[in-house]
Structure of Helix-turn-helix domain-containing protein:
Amino acid sequence: MTVPSGRRERKKAATRQKIADTALRLFLERGYDAVGIREVAAEADVAVTTLFSHFASKEALVFEQDEDFEQRLTQAVTGRAPHEPLIPALHHEIQALVRHCTADSAAPIWRMIDESPALRKYEESMRLRHAETLATAIADDPALSQTATASRTIARFVIDAYSLAREAADPEAAVDEIFQMIEAAWEATCPSRRA
């Protein structure tokens, strides 16, 4: 039966979200370094083991949408319609993510991240992982016919576009400007696609 399985998955997702929301609230109220894992678990009314079954580390609590972000980028590659160009699909996805992460409500979170060496280090490792996942999706697409080096380079550019735009005075304009350069780099690796 799919109903119990669906119910179980919904309950699991709700517990995960409750833990993440509780952690973020506590971190913003008292400071990231001042709050321990046990405090988050107690406030969320879950066991520490339950918390760790949803999040691998304290840092992961801040980046609770990490997996979603990675999946959305991969889907921008693998979910394209046949003959749909890659770079516009990635541009669209990064633009949406930048809009989400530059909303006024996100500013305190990014200040907290910028002030914490542990969170900055975690974010950097997360970006490298996202770039590798994206590079694999690009390289695995037979319609794109890219070398591993070209795939990794474009993937890094895309991930860096997100980070650079988030810090710009006009994030959406920055994404557009950066993607013009990414498009040019992509076209340089695909001379047969030039019109």
Remarks:
- Residues 2-30 form the longest helix (29 residues).
- The chain has ten helices and no strands.
